[in-house]
Design goal:
The complex is a heterodimer of chains A (285) and B (618). Chain A has eleven helices and no strands. By secondary structure, chain A is mostly helical. The chains are: A mainly alpha (285), B alpha/beta (618).
């Protein structure tokens, strides 16, 4: 068996990564895989049960919701929203947070003070409330959801990374690089960033899970993408009134959120274990 | 009857790869009230002996054979409960890191009280002031100021030396029969070290305690031990009375170690450098003959094939060697002739009244509180000169180094390099300084980026100049050659190298741009004497080849005496004395220099007198 790259040579990362490949695949191939248009209403076939329950219809493998929309198709299309948000919101939050964290941790002094105070103020808003307010201001839409999550969650990166940068900054090899004529930019990118990257990657995996949850919350509250775009949070919200006679309409989208977040978290945990230099340095040697 | 008798005890470590012998058939005795020194390089198994006696072996280690008797009791057969009762009462410990051995969330008083309970002298229902009295008496016996006040303090409020004294006081509370001191002074300053060693000796005599003193410092061992056991790769290579072992060493290893240490006084001589390093656990199995043979200057064919016999070389003095009679023949290389400083040498570096203050507390409307780390230090350095800076920790010697090299800005004073003013921190000055002055950092662990290969690290300076890949590879090979490593090492990561090799890479990186002045901050501290000797030889080699100057910062006076032309003594941020090495060592002017010299182990007055002298420090 060809050896797996280091970051995958760990059961946890492997499980997480495999699950995510399925989810991303489902999202990408939704138009091909979905048996129906996710918004197509079939008022004759309302609240059909999934296939393992008696009275189901083979045309709707996972049943239908209260408007007769095919749940499987809606789940597949919902994965597109979830994945887009997870990836782009995380990228945005990472870039912003990591940039400021490296500035603050490397230069220290007033730069650090200023960035630290901004974070303090930022964190004093409850994150869900802040994102809801932002959504009200920005209006519905996929990119606005992403923007809202970036603006709320960059602080998470910034705070954790800043302290890591400060630790690395104090190592003598950073001083040595400066003495050898490295500019500040080069010192940060060549000496400090490689040391903080494992933490950064781990944080990104965890943040993707968080982004999925936040998006679900926003769409549950009807503050995310518009009604015409299927999203998991929205499906949960729609299923509330029929929860007693058609529990699967609520359970299935909840399960989709759960599996996705679980995959991201276990991937993050596995990455932390295999990328943490304190644990791997001797093994790699 | 001897207090401790160890007879053919072996300890092995077992893992998935097999079983490895860590200690091999140790045989020695310790009489009541005597001090036994365990010496050897790191990794030889010194600490493991202490742990074996106390039956505190780590996981996967176990005694495979032999007989271990303490006070008539078979230690290998006593139950866990009985052993626990023995520990702390009959067998006491003094650890290497005093701060790590004390509980940070309990006061000193609470910890002493707990210990009293454990050893059965506890308060029990006795009133508070009773145990306080006992505790105060104990702390008073180790010469702590204000013992009553210390009882209410937490460990972090005390210095390392004070914590070590508290641990000594606690160790002697139970009137132990045996005290195991595992490198008790390694983490402390030289000046404090002398006091701690004196104190242990003092307490030991007063209580008639037997002591096992584990140390890598042969001079310390010589000073305080009655008997000495030399350990090499898990083998007891020599055992005997300290005076015998050090005057007439029977094993070449003992002799080599002795000659690897620069003498602190008397005639100058060269250092004996042992090649390579001690074989690792894994490679021991393939070694048929003497384990020291590959490094031994006297080795012949049979040494590599036949295990050496245990030979009696004097009264109570045994050595594990095929031909111990040849050992005295190992001679040190002749003294260096570098001490002829060129009087016409050009002035390279000049510093005048350089100072540095740190802000300890910023205030909003008033001047901030400051702490002067360096107070108006001045020095001149000629081209090709070696200057030593000595002082205890906190004396400002590392700060001065950072100022000289430009890692920090000065708070005042001027610096000149080759006649050009370099006091400022602007770009041009920094570039000029960079070309001529480089620094070797203290801790190779932190000074080498673990994510870069050695080849990249040593040619890091070329990265800024956009050196091509091929150029860098060539230069890396050159540099590695120069510092005595094979060019293949360029492909390794720092984590794949030994401490001595890392320190060499650390030096090579600073040499890449061919600086005229190298500032070396404690680059040999924490290394074994054999590795230290190798590195000192390397520096001398560089001096011959490159004619560069070095400022060597060290707390080890004998290293400075060996290597440097002039020495500068710092105390509390001030330069208290500077001058030619021989003159300063022979006839110190400043009080502090005199005390520093007196505190060196193995020189002049015996420990007890020294201890009295040291009290003046505090």
């Amino acid at each position: 068996m060809p050896s797996l790259p280091l970051w995958l040579s760990n059961t946890r990362s492997l499980i997480g990564f495999t699950l995510l490949i399925f989810i991303v695949g489902a999202a990408l191939l939704a138009p091909v895989l979905a048996p129906h248009d996710p918004n197509e209403q079939d008022l004759i076939n309302m609240l059909l049960p999934p296939f393992w329950v008696e009275g189901s219809d083979a045309a709707f493998p996972l049943g239908t919701d209260s408007l007769g929309r095919d749940i499987l198709s809606r789940l597949l299309y919902g994965a597109r929203v979830a994945m887009t948000v997870a990836i782009f919101a995380t990228l945005g939050a990472t870039l912003l947070g990591a940039f400021l964290a490296h500035l603050a941790g490397y230069f220290g002094g007033w730069v650090d003070w200023l960035i630290g105070r901004i974070i303090d103020v930022w964190l004093s808003f409850p994150p869900v409330v802040l994102s809801l307010i932002l959504m009200v201001g920005l209006g519905a839409g996929l990119w606005n959801v992403i923007l809202a999550i970036v603006l709320v969650d960059w602080t998470r990166f910034c705070r954790v990374l800043r302290s890591e940068v400060m630790v690395v900054r104090r190592r003598d090899y950073v001083s040595a690089a400066r003495l050898l004529g490295f500019s500040h930019v080069r010192t940060i990118t060549r000496e400090i960033l490689p040391a903080t990257l494992p933490l950064l990657i781990t944080l990104m995996a965890l943040e993707m899970g968080i982004a999925v949850v936040v998006e679900a919350i926003l769409s549950f509250a009807g503050m995310s993408v518009g009604n015409e775009v299927p999203a998991w949070g929205q499906m949960i919200a729609d299923a509330r009134q029929d929860v007693y006679n058609a529990p699967s309409t609520l359970i299935l989208p909840s399960f989709a959120v759960f599996v996705t977040v679980f995959a991201f978290n276990i991937l993050g945990d596995g990455l932390r274990r295999s990328l943490d230099t304190r644990l791997t340095q001797t093994e790699r040697a | 009857m001897s207090l401790l008798s160890v007879n053919g005890v072996s300890v092995a470590f077992a893992n998935a790869l097999g079983t490895f012998t860590v200690l091999d058939k140790l045989t020695f005795e310790l009489q009541p009230g005597k001090v036994l020194g365990l010496v050897g390089e790191s990794g030889a198994g010194k600490s493991m002996i202490g742990r074996t006696i106390a039956q505190l072996l780590p996981n996967r280690f176990h005694v495979t054979e032999g007989d271990l008797r303490f006070d008539g009791r078979d230690m290998l057969k006593t139950g866990a409960a009985e052993q626990r009762a023995l520990l702390g009462r009959d067998i006491a410990f003094i650890p290497q890191e005093p701060l790590a051995a004390l509980d940070p969330v309990l006061t000193i008083g609470q910890q002493i009280r707990e210990h009293l309970d454990h050893i059965g002298r506890g308060a029990g229902r006795r009133p508070e002031r009773d145990w306080r009295k006992v505790a105060i008496e104990a702390l008073d016996a180790v010469h702590l100021h204000d013992p009553a006040g210390v009882l209410d303090k937490y460990p972090h409020q005390l210095s390392g030396g004070m914590c070590q004294r508290i641990l000594i006081a606690m160790a002697f509370l139970s009137q132990p029969k045996l005290l195991i001191a595992d490198e008790p002074t390694t983490a402390l300053d030289v000046s404090v070290q002398a006091r701690i060693v004196g104190l242990i000796g003092d307490m030991q005599r007063r209580h008639g305690t037997a002591v096992i003193f584990i140390t890598h410092d042969l001079r310390l061992a010589r000073e305080i031990c009655d008997d000495v056991l030399v350990l090499y790769a898990g083998k007891q290579v020599e055992f005997g009375p300290a005076s015998e072992v050090f005057e007439r060493p029977g094993h070449p290893y003992t002799r080599a170690l002795q000659l690897a240490i620069p003498p602190a006084a008397g005639e100058h001589r060269g250092l004996f450098t042992l090649p390579d390093r001690m074989p690792g656990l894994m490679s021991l199995k393939q070694m048929g003959g003497c384990r020291f043979a590959p490094r031994c200057p006297l080795a012949e064919a049979r040494c590599h094939e036949v295990p050496p016999p245990d030979v009696t070389v004097g009264p109570g003095h045994r050595a594990l060697c095929h031909k111990p009679e040849a050992t005295p023949g190992i001679a040190p290389p002749p003294a260096l002739e570098h001490r002829h400083r060129d009087p016409d040498a050009q002035l390279l570096f000049r510093a005048r009244d350089v100072s540095r203050h740190y802000i300890t507390r910023a205030r909003l409307f008033r001047k901030p509180d400051t702490f002067p780390a360096v107070r108006s230090a001045s020095l001149d350095l000629a081209e090709g000169e070696f200057l030593g800076i000595v002082g205890e920790s906190g004396s400002g010697k590392s700060t001065l180094a950072r100022l000289l090299v430009g890692l920090e800005g000065t708070s005042g004073g001027t610096m000149e390099l080759l006649g050009r003013d370099v006091s400022g921190m602007d770009r041009g000055t920094a570039a000029f300084r960079r070309e001529n002055v480089q620094m070797v950092f203290q801790d190779p662990q932190s000074a080498l980026n673990p994510r870069r290969r050695v080849g990249e690290i040593v040619t890091q300076a070329m990265e800024v100049m956009n050196g091509s890949r091929a150029d860098r590879a060539t230069r890396a090979a050159e540099l590695l050659q120069e510092i005595g490593l094979s060019p293949e090492m360029a492909q390794r990561y720092p984590s794949q190298m030994s401490g001595g090799q890392k320190q060499r890479v650390n030096i090579a990186r600073a040499l890449c741009t061919v600086p005229r002045l190298l500032i070396a901050d404690e680059i040999v501290s924490g290394l074994d004497v054999s590795v230290q000797a190798q590195l000192l030889e390397l520096l001398l080699h560089l001096r011959r080849e490159r004619a560069m100057s070095i400022i060597l910062i060290s707390h080890d006076l004998s290293v400075v005496r060996y290597l440097c032309d002039r020495v500068l003594v710092m105390y509390r941020g001030e330069v208290v004395e500077q001058g030619e090495v021989d003159a300063v060592f022979a006839n110190p002017q400043a009080d502090y220099t005199r005390k520093l010299l007196a505190a060196m182990p193995g020189e002049g007055a015996p420990a007890a007198e020294k201890f009295a002298a040291e009290e003046a420090f505090a």
